[in-house]
């Protein structure tokens, strides 16, 4: 049987998917063990025991200076920045993207501007943001927004503008005004695409978050990673990276799930 | 009897390309006009100008003796071959949409008693097109024929003066097509509709129509194929009861222009 025709069952696909991950973990353990055999104090590839020990301090013991449980405080701070950034971007993408997509005069006026902003590397704007907003939360959130909102706006505007012409005409023959068309035809059909755009922007959003935290912050997942880098603390960096990956996967899963729940029609609903 | 829809010397040109030239037509209320013609003869362009999707480059179109604005409106309903239903709305809500637009300018949604009245009207219309048992399906869950039934119901609920059909049954298989022919004929007489239908299917044009228009170019310059546009070369009124098509007036003489 040709490989293109092979169908993988649900159980098997979980098993197959876990296989490379398990192999990678095994590879790491073998490498770490062999380095520790040469040098018991090796810091580059820490053993799981060392990671657990280092992490438990951050997880369960309040920091002496601030009195916070650092791991949870970092997670909370980062997720808050990410959430506000994503929220503002999503909302502006929805509003601006919809208007750009539906109304040709608005598109003609503003789409060059949006394109122009979208092609600027956001990190290049970071100094401006720090100068304008100071080193606080605003600059970090602004970096995320500037980094992902233009892409999301363009994606959504493109999707809305590509709605079949027939639908737009049909809506008008049913008496719809521009406003009604936007509200009842374009907006609902933009929603699943918006969730898709958020999913795709999640990666870049994390990049901008970690960058902003690495450069100027006193709390956050990215801040912690870059802080302990000075002590070669791979036993903290690696679990933090794994945690970020886990959070990203969880957010992605949540988005897919909610899109399927809320927009059944867009997912080839079964009979 | 004065015509419901009149086209006076209508031209459609895109730059140097002449698509339609000198189209003069009077369409009476209650007629079922089929438009046939080869590809590229401007059938769809004609439909678009009547629909208001485009303005003719010359000439005027009168509906009830008032010039039409070059914009689509609820007085002219349309059913396209595809994509004319909203994929994100259920059958019932698709049909309700037209009523909601008219009655709720700001929210485009109805509530309470007005919604119930509108729902009842939409349901009645869906039963008339044979979708009474599928009120809560989404278009993606339905066959092509059912989607076209929905598109028709959607258009008819606005009681349009004219119903425009752009190859509405072109993508359907023969059995479903026959059902749809029966349906549109029944709706046409039940609701006293005026229908203009563009089709590729000559048989369909003659079975359904009370009048068949054939579009083609009268003149053709082989060195400048876009120099001359198409116009109505045959205009055949059909007497449905006798089911005999009487080839009309000037057909043959006009055809001889092609040999120049």
UniProtKB/TrEMBL annotation, chain A:
The chain crosses the membrane at residues 82-103, 110-135, 141-163, 197-216, 236-257. It is a multi-pass membrane protein. Its main location: membrane. It is found in: Cell membrane. Residues 79-255 form the ABC transmembrane type-1 domain. InterPro entries: MetI-like, MetI-like_sf. It comes from the Bacteria. The keyword Transmembrane helix applies. CDD domains: TM_PBP2. Coiled coil: none annotated. Keywords: Cell membrane, Membrane, Transmembrane, Transmembrane helix, Transport. Belongs to the binding-protein-dependent transport system permease family. This is ABC transporter permease subunit. It comes from Croceibacterium selenioxidans.
TrEMBL record, chain B:
Residues 5-242 form the ABC transporter domain. InterPro entries: AAA+_ATPase, ABC_SmlMolc_Importer, ABC_transporter-like_ATP-bd, ABC_transporter-like_CS, P-loop_NTPase. GO terms for molecular function: ATP binding. CDD domains: ABC_NrtD_SsuB_transporters. This is ABC transporter ATP-binding protein. It holds the Pfam family ABC_tran. It comes from Croceibacterium selenioxidans. Keywords: ATP-binding, Nucleotide-binding, Transport.
């Amino acid at each position: 049987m040709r490989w293109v025709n092979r169908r993988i069952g649900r159980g098997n696909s979980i098993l197959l998917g876990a296989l490379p991950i398990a192999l990678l973990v095994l590879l790491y353990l073998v490498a770490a063990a062999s380095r520790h055999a040469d040098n018991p104090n090796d810091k580059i590839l820490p053993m799981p025991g060392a990671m657990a020990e280092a992490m438990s301090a951050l997880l369960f013991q309040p920091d002496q200076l601030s009195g916070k449980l650092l791991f949870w405080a970092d997670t909370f701070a980062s997720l808050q920045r990410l959430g506000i950034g994503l929220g503002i971007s999503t909302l502006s993408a929805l509003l601006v993207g919809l208007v750009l997509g539906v109304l040709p005069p608005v598109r003609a006026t503003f789409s060059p501007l949006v394109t122009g902003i979208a092609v600027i590397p956001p990190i290049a704007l970071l100094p401006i943001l720090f100068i304008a907003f100071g080193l606080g939360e605003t600059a970090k959130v602004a970096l995320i927004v500037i980094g992902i909102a233009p892409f999301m706006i363009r994606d959504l505007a493109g999707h809305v503008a590509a709605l079949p012409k027939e639908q737009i005409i049909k809506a008008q023959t049913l008496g719809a005004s521009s406003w009604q068309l936007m509200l009842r035809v374009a907006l609902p059909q933009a929603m699943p695409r918006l969730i898709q755009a958020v999913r795709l922007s999640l990666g870049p959003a994390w990049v901008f978050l970690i960058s902003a935290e690495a450069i100027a912050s006193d709390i956050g997942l990215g801040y912690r990673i870059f802080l302990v880098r000075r002590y070669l603390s791979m036993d903290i960096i690696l679990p933090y990276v794994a945690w970020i990956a886990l959070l990203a996967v969880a957010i992605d899963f949540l988005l897919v799930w909610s899109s399927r729940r809320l927009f059944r029609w867009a997912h080839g609903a079964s009979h | 009897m004065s015509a419901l829809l009149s086209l006076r010397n209508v031209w459609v040109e895109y730059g140097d390309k002449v698509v339609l030239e000198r189209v003069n037509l009077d369409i009476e209320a209650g007629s079922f006009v089929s438009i046939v013609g080869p590809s590229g003869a401007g059938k769809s362009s004609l439909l678009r100008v009547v629909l208001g999707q485009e303005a003719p480059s010359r000439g005027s179109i009168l509906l009830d003796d008032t010039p039409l604005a070059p914009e689509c409106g609820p007085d002219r309903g349309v059913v396209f071959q595809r994509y004319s239903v909203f994929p994100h709305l259920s059958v019932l809500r698709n049909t309700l949409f037209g009523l909601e637009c008219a009655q709720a300018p700001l929210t485009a949604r109805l509530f309470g008693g007005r919604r119930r009245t509108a729902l009842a009207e939409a349901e009645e219309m869906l039963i008339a097109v044979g979708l009474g048992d599928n009120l809560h399906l989404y278009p993606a869950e339905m066959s092509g024929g059912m989607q076209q039934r929905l598109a028709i119901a959607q258009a008819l609920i606005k009681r349009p003066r004219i119903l425009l059909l752009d190859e509405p049954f072109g993508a359907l298989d023969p059995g479903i097509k026959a059902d749809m022919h029966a349906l549109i004929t029944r709706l046409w007489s039940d609701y006293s509709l005026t229908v203009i239908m563009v089709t590729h299917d000559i048989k369909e044009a003659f079975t359904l129509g009370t009048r068949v228009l054939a579009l083609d170019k009268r003149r053709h310059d082989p060195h400048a194929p876009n120099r001359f546009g198409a116009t109505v070369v045959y205009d055949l009124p059909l007497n449905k009861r006798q089911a005999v098509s009487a080839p009309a007036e000037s057909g043959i003489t006009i055809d001889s222009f092609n040999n120049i």
